[in-house]
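Thread amino acids onto this structure.
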């Protein structure tokens, strides 16, 4: 991929949108934000790691990444996940991602509307805060097949 991905935090818009990058996405350790539409419709199968120090993921940053799967663990540093950031969109358009588990840190401030909507394969959500987020961010996740873990207060 690109050697200077740390620069994407300062670029507006979908710099890599629709480029169809494949395989595992590796982000630099010093990245602070992932802008709106940055990786929309790419074909990553996983994200190696969301690095410590990442503060924000923008609007639809990973929207339509239908091959993205596995465990999605957010670092303690993350403050905001934008609207539709990891949304799979509508099932009729076959954009559902393959994420199976979402791990949220205790101190996250904002999870945008629809951030994980259409993530049909999620079977586990781990929330490190004593109260799970109250936001319309998990739409269309099969709640009958999904466990939410929250620490005892």
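Threaded sequence (153 positions):
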């Amino acid at each position: 991929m690109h050697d200077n991905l740390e620069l994407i935090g300062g670029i507006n818009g979908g710099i890599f949108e629709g480029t169809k990058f494949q395989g595992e996405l590796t982000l630099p350790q010093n990245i602070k934000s992932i802008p709106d539409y940055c990786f929309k419709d790419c074909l990553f199968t996983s994200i190696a790691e969301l690095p410590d120090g990442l503060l924000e993921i923008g609007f639809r940053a990973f929207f339509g990444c239908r091959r993205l799967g596995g465990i999605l663990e957010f670092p303690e540093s993350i403050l905001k996940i934008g609207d539709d950031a990891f949304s799979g969109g509508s099932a009729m358009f076959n954009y559902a991602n393959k994420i199976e588990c979402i791990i949220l840190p205790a101190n996250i401030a904002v999870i945008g509307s629809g951030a994980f909507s259409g993530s049909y394969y999620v079977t586990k959500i781990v929330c490190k805060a004593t109260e799970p987020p109250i936001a319309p961010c998990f739409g269309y996740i099969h709640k009958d097949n999904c466990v939410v873990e929250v620490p005892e207060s």
